[in-house]
Amino acid sequence: MSFSLIDWLFDFAARLPLNLLHRLGFALGWATYLLSRKYAARMRENLRYGLEGHSDMEFRKVLNAAIAESGKSLVELAWVWRRPLSEVTGLVKLCQGWEHVAAAQAKGRGIIFLTPHLGCFEVSALYMAERMPLTVLYRPPRLVWLEKVMRSGRERGQLRLARTDVGGVRLLYKALKRGEAIALLPDQVPGNGEGEWKEFFGRPAYTMTLVGRLVESSGAVMLMGCTERLPDGAGFVIRLTPVEFIPGSPVVAQMNAALETAVRAFPAQYLWSYNRYKVPAGVEPYGRKSELKTGDRA
User: Fold this and answer.
1) Is residue 292 over pLDDT 60?
2) pLDDT tens digits, 181-216
3) 148-172: average pLDDT
4) Per-domain residue ranges for the chain?
5) Confidence class for position 179, pLDDT limits 50, 70, 90
6) C-alpha triplet 141, 142, 146: angle, nearest 5°
7) DSSP letter assigned to residue 270
8) Closest to 227 (Cα-Cα) out of 110, 101, 137, 96
9) Max Cα-Cα span within the chain
10) Residues of the chain above pLDDT 90, percent
11) Pairing relation of β-strands 181-184 and 111-114?
12) Phi/psi at 133 (5° precision)
């Protein structure tokens, strides 16, 4: 499929009202769930860990909503990336916790926005980039045409993209050193050597260690930034919550705990279909090393 055709499709979808796109996303979410057994099984399994201790009725209620919300998160990208920036950010009805941003800026401290796969996280980055320089870490997609579409939709306002490589990480360090803000997905599975196994909703998840290194080297403020999608295309609500860095305590564990709290606030909008618990290429599965040592002694 050519880039020009994709470009046209995105432009066409962006002309549709957001509430209509969300209805289409509802249908897409259910179609994907019903047609892909692997997708459906992963979503159910991950959600069961996230809702451990809840009743079957509550599980089913959240699952049904999550199926629809996952479709909305995909379809709304055309609207978010192609509509005028002021129109997109204008649908942010409320930004709770902005005082934490103002306090960090008053002290000249950098800010690390942790924006997980929760709600419409694309909107939060654009909202921040209207108000301050923002460097966002991203993993380039395999499809060349998708990266072109993605970059054109994201690099607006004062937003700058940084690839998940050595050069991109350097950009993050430099931005924080200047007292600016950066943003990244704290629940994105890192590559070999870039993470460690930490518990996330009761299961070992290979979790990035980059955030810890950034905090320790820069003294930046960590803020969990979550963007809730309101019903019927009515807009979005951004919630900014401080993640306190306790010296001597693993930042990775603190980050995952803060993320769990954020997800529990509106679990139906978390991307439960994401393969969060996968073992990246070259990484020893959790517990594998200890098992090998036990076997050697035997």
Assistant:
1) no
2) 999 999 999 999 999 999 999 999 999 999 999 998
3) 94
4) 3-275
5) very high
6) 55
7) B
8) 96
9) 66
10) 85
11) parallel
12) -65, 135
Task: Write b or e for each residue in 181-218: b if 16 or more Cβ atoms lie within 10 A of its Cβ, otherwise e.
Answer: bbbbbbbbbbeeebbbbbebbeeebbbbbbbbebbeeb
Start-to-end CA distance of the chain, whole Å, equals 56
Distance from chain centroid for Cα 32: 21
| Chain centroid, CA 92 distance in Å | 18
Return the SS3 of 109. Answer: coil
User: Which structure tokens are listed for 13?
Assistant: 């979808």
Q: What is the pLDDT of residues 5-54, one digit of tens each?
A: 778 888 999 999 999 999 999 999 999 999 999 999 999 999 999 999 99
Residue tagged 């399994």 (tokens):
45
- At a CB cut-off of 8 Å and minimum separation 6, what does 278 contact? 189, 206
Residue 129 structure tokens: 């980039």
161 sits in which H/E element: strand 159-163
CB 266 within 8 A of CB 119: yes
Q: Which two tokens stand for residue 143?
A: 């499809």
pTM: 0.91
Residue with tokens 């860990």: 49
- Residue 9 tokens, joined: 């499709």
CA distance 194 to 210: 7
